[in-house]
Amino acid sequence: MxxxxxxxxxxxGRAGWGMHCPELDERTDSFEIVAACDVIAxxxxxxxxxxxxxxxxxxxxxxxxxxxxxxxxxxxxCDHYAHAALALAAGKDALLEKPMTVSYDEAVKLxxxxxxxxxxxxxxxxxxxxxxFLQVREIIDSGILGEVYEIQLARHSYQRRDDWxxxxxxxxxxxxxxxxxxxxxxxxxxxxxxxxxxxxxxxVAAAGDAEDHLKIVLRGENGRxxxxxxxxxxxLGSPTYRVFGTKGSLVxxxxxxxxxxxxxxxxxxxxxxxxxxxxxxxxQSEQLVWIDETLPVKAGTNHVIWDHLYAAIxxxxxxxxxxxxxxxxxxxxxxxxxxTGF
Length: 342
Fold this sequence. Notes:
Number of helices: 9
CATH topology of the largest domain: Dihydrodipicolinate Reductase, domain 2
CATH superfamily of the largest domain: Dihydrodipicolinate Reductase, domain 2
Number of strands: 14
Number of domains: 2
Distance between the termini: 50 Å
Strand order of the largest sheet: 8-9-10-7-11-12-13-14
Shape: elongated
CATH class of the largest domain: Alpha Beta
Strand content: 25-35%
């Protein structure tokens, strides 16, 4: 028999109601929603009808509820720091939806608050478990592409968005929306501390004052480049993943992976550069044997983050997203925003 974790959800909008609730519906043996909080009365009523749980209009009252063991924070980005700090001050475990905070300084302060609390802080970088991301990492680790020297990540769309996610005052912008997920991917792909960072932020199509188009290029101390681009202003998008290695390449679009790599069975003779005058035709005499493959993205879901969370709280397992990793994401975010209007 499992001992379910009694959870209180703070914020019943697109994340709390639209994602967390249905994901938890799949894990009723592991988690029990005992309370929920939202400032909008109709949302509280809807939640009480759905789950039969207690509902609150005040975050502090939910945190003070003795039945709540884990505080699941799914409020607006600008409120994440304050709500997580309240939960930790009360000695409660807290699950914090991305972004961890709106700045690197706030993220560091939360780590300090967690160190002084009897509760634990967990950051929900659930896309660490996206099937396509995991499969691309498996292919890189297999070595068939040789030494990978550059990876390009893209999340493109075109939308004239006008909600709070377009306003700086509320922690809006693509940097804090898709950004934490894709920056986390980039840091995992980099496999090295960041040596250099280039960033460019723009507002292209959104109605607010926050960025809806961003590019970040990270160079690791190992020399590898990761180029990531997130945009709500691109009408014709790029592949989600492009990976370049010394022996092959990978492109992932939608649910399909295209590979081209040198046949590992082909013996390649050493070559040296010839400074002499070349012949009268272009090209090389060496005949390379290529393997071309098309693979479907494996089935799976990033909802398994709940299973890792349960194992960390109930079984003492190591939660796979460390606070240091989450804080490094926020360091990249804050550095990208430095000296810009965003």
